[in-house]
Each structure stands twice: as structure tokens, then as C-alpha cells.
Description:
Keywords: Membrane, Signal, TPR repeat, Transmembrane, Transmembrane helix. It comes from Shewanella litoralis. It is an enzyme of class 2 (transferase). This protein is mainly alpha-helical. Among the domains are: 280-419; 429-583, Reverse transcriptase/Diguanylate cyclase domain (Alpha-Beta Plaits). 74% of the residues lie in helices and 5% in strands. The protein has a 5-stranded mixed β-sheet. The model is unreliable at 16-25 and 353-366 (pLDDT under 50).
Amino acid sequence: MGTLLIRFCIKWLVTVLLLSNAVIANANEVDAELDTAENFMHTDTQSAIATLDSLLSQESELSNNQKSRLYMLISVKHLYLAEYNKADIALERALSFNPPDDILTRIYLYKVTVSIGLKDYKQAFTQLETNLARIHNYQDNSIKIATYNRLLNVYLELEAYDEMLRISQLALELNQGKNPKNQCYSMLYYSVANLRLKQLEQASSLFSDTEQYCAEQGFPLIAVMSVKGRAIVAYEEADYKRAETLFLTALEDYQKFKFEVEINEIHSYLGMTYFYLGRFQQAKFFADKVNQLPIAPNNLLVKKRVNEALSLVAGKQGQYDKAYQYQVVANALSLQILNEQKVKENAYQMARFDSVEKNRENNSLMQDHELLMQQKDLFMKDKSSSIMFSTLLVGVSVGLLLLLISAWLQRNQFMKQAQRDGLTGIYNRRTGQELAEVEFIEAQTVSEPFSVLLMDLDLFKNINDQFGHATGDWTLKKVTSVIEGMIRANDIFTRMGGEEFAIFMPKQDQAAAAAFAELVRIEICGINTRYSGHDFTITVSCGVSTASKDDLSLDPLIQRADLALYSAKNNGRNCVLCYDDAMA
């Protein structure tokens, strides 16, 4: 009997061990599949989705940690498809399984991406502040560094390049090469931040270091991204032959990964690169590839770039109608991109301001608390010190009042910054058009004339290419300074973007506006450029339009002025054309 019992126990123990091993093996297999899906998510989206659908069918067999990770990756799938509300639902589902710290932080960072997709940028920046506070409290540096790297991708989407530079430096200092994967990502983001901030020489060196390190450590995709970074630096420096070689190298490697987003961007750069190399057939080949893509948020920039390339190619081939059509599309995409950038910038400024205000409020509360404690202590020690306390209270009140006044002034300063162009100090496009729209409506109400003058600096890109962006910035500021000294008090001077400016002119008919435009053209021609450190000539093309009684908004005037400006460019530049003359 005892022998049988022992045999039964041994048999039962073996069965339990086998079942435990099977469960562990199955769990390991699921984790491996989740890893595969996550790796595919950036390179082969369809394979990633197929893996996730397979895991979803066996959800009941997964652990809570695996379920939270699964739904987090499902949210990423929806983000790729621009299904932001579905992504948010998936993230809420992932949160319901009480994920560990590393997954939890990633979920909250994807929530930031959802806010970006829904264009709620202020919410996105607020969420970023919350995440940064959470990350700083982590004790595990490996989780902290990995989270910083994911945070950097969000800052890149929001175009917050200064923050991106700061966080990537912090991640590199914490990691110090201990984790090669984290080191690669941090090095890449640090290089990209320098590129976006136009520190081209440093960016080129950083991309080279990143490429070499990541290739040696077995991270070929990041190495390819670094090659593309070097190519963009060469393109920005107008070294188009070197840019071509690097872009083609990166393209060949990206095709192995089936990384469509990166492939599309390289195609767009090759379209422009081949134009500058004078190889128009190849430029058109790559540009047409991108132009076939649907108009979606992640395609706006590449489609703008290739429409500019196609416009330039058509112009060189004498096909001016096509050139104009492509340029109209490029301008529309530029406006959409510019509007997105302005919304992001304003949201970033307001979020930063709210953060400062919150800190000040906390400091004020702490001061109030300390003040109350002092009051109690003084009262208990000696009632006669009430006069001293009153004096102290008045002093602190005055201090708080000054603090509030300072905050109010700072808020006004931020609001003013949101209305002005950062380089030239004149109105930015959105503010200028809003103010002009009000003036236009008033003018139409009382049947007063209203004119629009659009100006574009001729061959401005050549100034940047030959003498550098610092000289280009000097040119824009100098031109702005000259025009500001000429306009009337009620004229609205606006930078429309790049080297294009507008003057909205209430109570000015077409003849007066055209005469003023000619004066502006002559003054700009006479600018002495030697103070920039280089000797060159600045010229400007101008287009003028005037409101008719049928105009219901400012948009038709701007469009007619833009057509006149385009005709001025085609007529040899450095001239003024009115819409009526241009279309005659």
C-alpha cells in the first residue's frame, strides 16, 4: 500500500512539473510573438497586424502583463492607420490589466501620440509634462533611459527640437554605453535634434559615429537611419552628388526592411536632388512615385517636396502651365504644414507657461503655509509681536502681488510671441491674415478700397546655398527693416512663410498699391549687402490685387495677388505686376 502511494505521488509530481514547463514554454512563446510583432511594427506592418490578430484569438490564455502589452501594440496598429479614437480605446483596455511600470509609461506616451493625432497639442504637451515627472521618480535607470528614448520620438513629432536635444543628452549621460540598444536610439535622436536645429557640421559627425557604433552592435536599421541623416546634411549643404550616393545607399537598405515611410521620404529627396544635378528624367521618376501616395498627415511633407521638384522640372522644360499647377499644390501643402506647425508652437508655449504658472502657484502655497506657521509661532510666543507680523504680512502680500503682475506680463509676452514671426518680428501668417480679414470686412462695409501686395525674394535659395543660412537670415531681417520704415501705420506687414511677405493695405486702390510696390522694389535693390560679410544683390518680385465688390473674404485677393506674383516671376523677376495686367 505504501509503495503504491509513493508511486502515485511521484507520478502526480511529474505531471505537475510537465504542466508547469508547458505553461512556462507557452508564456515564453507568447512573449516571443509579442516581440516579433513589435519589431515588425516599424518595418513590416502587415506581418505585425497578422501576428497581433493571431494573439488576440487566444487572449483568454494570456497573462495580464501579456494582455496589456497586446492591447498596447494593437493601439500602435490603429495609430499607423490614423484611427486615433480606436487607438485610445485599445490603450484604455491595456491600462485595465494593471501593467508594470515600463509598459505603463509606454501606454501613457502612446496616449500623447493619440492627442497629437487628434490635433489636441496642448493636451499632448500637458501629458508629456506628466510623463516626465513620472519618469524622474523611477529608480531603475534602464526603464528610465528606454522611456526617455520613446519620449524623444514624441518630441520629434511635436517638433520640440530643443527639448529633444536636452532629453537625448540626459539619456546618453544616464546610459553611458551600458545598454547598446538604448545607446543607439539616444545617439540617433541626438543627431536628429542637431540636424533639425541646423547644426549641420556637428550633425554630420554625430550621424557618422551613430552609424559605425550601431552597425558594430548589431542594429542595422538605426545604422541605415544614420546614413539617411548624413544624406540630408549633404543635401542641406548643397553637396548634391554626395547626397545622391548616400540616399541611394540608404534606399537599398530600407527596401530590405520594407520601411515604406522612410522609402517615401528618400524618394522625395531624390526627386529634388536629381533636379539640382540637372537629371530631370530621374527627378521626375522619383517625384512621380511619391505623388501617387494618398494625401495623409504623414505624407504632406514628402508630397510638398516632390510637387516643388516637379514644378521646377516643368519650368526648366518650358511647361509653365504644369509648373504653375504643381506649385499651387505645393503651396497648399505648405500652408497646411505651416498651420500645423503654428498650432504646435502655440500649444508648446502655452503648456510651458502653464507649467511655470503651476510651479509658481505651488511655491506661493508653500510660502502661505510657512507664513501661517510663523504667525502661529509668533502669536504663541508673544502677542506684542503682532505689529511685526502685520508688517511681514503686508510685505509678503506685496511680493505675491508683484509675482502675479510678473506672471501677467509674461503671459502677455507669450501671447505676443505667438503672434509674431520669430526671425523678423513682424506678424506671422495666421495673425496677419486674421487682422487683415477684420480690416477687409470694414472696408467692404463702407465701400473703401483694399489692396494686397505679395512679395517674394528672388532666388533666395541661392543666397542660402552660396553664403549660408546666417546670411539668408540677415537678408530677411534687412528686407523687413527696410519695408517697415516705408509702410503706413494702418498697413499690416506679414511674413507668409520662407522668403514670401505680404502687405495688406486698407484704403489703398490698385494704382497706389502698385506705385508703393515699385518703391519697395527699388529700395530693396539698393540694399548694401556688404554688411552681411558678402557682396550680392537682393531683388524682389511683387504681385498686387485690389478688392472688388463681389469679394466676400480676403482669400480671393490673396489668390489673385499670388497669380500676379507668379507671372512676375515668369517675366524675369525683379518687377511689379497687378493682377489685371498679369491676366491681360
